[in-house]
Automatic annotation (TrEMBL):
Record-given protein name: Uncharacterized protein
InterPro entries: Galactose-bd-like_sf (IPR008979)
SUPFAM superfamilies the UniProt entry points to: Galactose-binding domain-like
Entry superkingdom: Bacteria
Length: 131
């Protein structure tokens, strides 16, 4: 049995579990820090999603005019604390970054993206099965 691609918009975060996050409609619905005054506060995005069990490569589409590396956790396991660690040369210039490989469980999984200050602007998240 082959696992299926899992893909969702960055706007699909769980609002009740996320912290200082905003969907910026002026920037093509990119997920950003909640507002200018909160740039120095911790930011956290939480996603719950369904998957088939197996190993996946995680990619995130994002934009950043300045370097804003984030920590990425899948099901409580740290994948990296230096994801999205380069500028894309603009807040609306989207690039795709490979975050790393991870194991997903059958059924519900949890992705957490966090940073002690403002996050990059996020667009899409993709888990690609590795057969």
């Amino acid at each position: 049995m082959h696992s299926a691609l899992v893909q969702f918009s960055a706007t699909d975060f769980v609002r009740e579990e996320s912290v200082n996050i905003f969907v910026n409609h002026a920037f093509n619905d990119l997920v950003t820090n909640s507002e200018k005054d909160n740039e120095q506060l911790p930011q956290k995005l939480v996603y719950h999603f369904y998957a088939d069990p197996g190993e996946y490569e995680l990619k995130i589409c994002y934009a950043a005019d300045e370097i804003r590396p984030v920590s990425v956790y899948v099901n409580g396991n740290l994948i990296t604390d230096r994801a999205l660690a380069k500028s894309t040369n603009g807040w609306t210039r989207i690039e795709t970054s490979v975050v790393g490989s991870t194991l997903l469980n059958s059924g519900v999984n949890t992705l957490v993206i966090s940073r002690e200050t403002a996050i990059p602007h996020l667009q899409q998240i993709t888990f690609t099965p590795q057969w």
